[in-house]
Structure formats: C-alpha cells, structure tokens
Amino acid sequence: MSAGIEALTGPHLWRGRAGCSAQKVRATGFEALDRALGGGWPWGAVVEIFVERYGCGELSLLMPALAALSAVDEAEPGFFVFVAPPWIPYPPALIRRGVDVGRILVVERPAAADETLWATEQAVRSGASAAVLAWLDSANDTVLRRLQLSAEERGCGLVLFRPERAMRHRSPAALRLKVSVERNETRVDVLKRRGGAPQSLRLDLFPYASQTARSASRRGSILPDRCGTSSFPQRAAVDRRALARVAPAGDRPDRCA
Q1: What is 22-236's CATH number?
Q2: In whole angstroms, what is the distance from residue 23 CA to residue 11 CA?
Q3: pLDDT, tens digit (0-9, with 9 covering 90-100), for 30-63
Q4: What are the angstrom distances between the C-alpha of 255 and each of 111, 119, 139, 171?
Q5: Is the dihedral of CA 14, 19, 22, 25 positive or negative?
Q6: Predicted TM-score of the model (pTM)
Q7: What whole-number distance in Å separates Cα of residue 130 and Cα of residue 46?
Q8: d(CA 238, CA 119)
C-alpha cells in the first residue's frame, strides 16, 4: 500500500493546485506578469510562448530573468543556450539588458527540424545549462513530455518559442502564453498555467529596458573584453557533436530516439 501511495506522489504527477505550491518559480521582472503567473516563470518546466511572427517582444519577456541569473548576487552556474534562433541575437543589446553574454551559447538553426529538437534536449539534459531558449516550429506531444521530464530532473529553465499555429496541439507544458503587439504595448495571453485560469494583460517593455541598461552599466563586470556586434564567445552548428563540450565530463547523454 505504501509503495502505491509513493507512486502517486512522485515529482512527475500533476495534482492541480495542491501540486503547484512547491514548484520553483523565478520572477519575470514585470509585476503584472508575476501576478498573472502565480509568482513568475515556472523553473524546471516547459514554457511555451506562441507568436504570430518572431520579433514581437517575446524574447524581451525573458530578459529580466536572464539578467537576474547573470547578477553577481544571484548567479547560478550554467550556460544560457539559444537553440535555432531565427536570427543571431545582438550582444550589445543583451549587455544593456544586464545579460552576461559570456555565458550564452548559440546553436545555429539546422536544416532538419529533428536536429533542433535533439539539440534542445541535449542542452537541457547536459546539466550544464541554467536556461534553454529554443525556437521550435514543430514538436509532438511525446517530444514535449520528454523535454518536460528532462527540465524537471535538471531544474533547468526551458522556454520554447513556437508559431501561433502550434497552439491547437495538446501539450504537457506547465505554462502556455501567446504574445502579440497592440499599438505600443505587448499583449500577453495566458492560455494555460498550473493552478490558474486563462487571462490577458498588457505590458510596456520600455521602462524595464531603461532600468536594466543603467544597472548593467554599473555592474561593468559582465562586459567582455571584446564584444563584436554579430558574434558570441560560443557558437556551434547543430550536429551530433555540437553540444559535446557543454556537457560535463562523464555526463554526456547520447542522442535520444
């Protein structure tokens, strides 16, 4: 009987509101969004952000969390892995937001979609990533469940940027958002979150950008000695060896089926 009870209280069983209180969250940096999400980004879980087109402010929503991970007083070890971004992020802009670009690993967009999925999973499972941001055009329920389990086991932040058409597919993600632009504001629709109801809110991202720029200038330690306008210290093409140097020695997972 006790074995059966333990099986029903494992970490991979979602128990509604009762199971949400122990979930680790990280502040988003936006008070209204924190309230809508019940405290912040669920960390160690899949977060899906849907957009009609990339570049509508979806990445800016993650900047405060990455800046907090970069801050000296809150620093956690690990890379910030960008998997298959539609364009190479601009290092000076990230620095102005307070992000340590020396910890960013950009995995370039491959020709095959399954390679993007593989790179994403390896980045999470490696144990060497503090956060993984991946741009996925397609992913089935089985793949998403595997990513969810890997994120939980490693305690890694995992955010998937996806096209709007993928919203109709079911997903085990802890959080699903839709991001769009209305006039001069960013609209965020909370489609699904554990223990909460769907809702919508509008955010002004510009005040945050100005505040973090001032903070980054005071912390000059995150500035690399040389920072080009189109390159990062770590960039890799996607192949079976692309993330080999990210995983700790002796803990390099093989490619999953």
Answers
A1: 3.40.50.300
A2: 10
A3: 999 999 999 999 999 999 999 988 877 789 999 9
A4: 17, 9, 16, 22
A5: positive
A6: 0.75
A7: 14
A8: 7
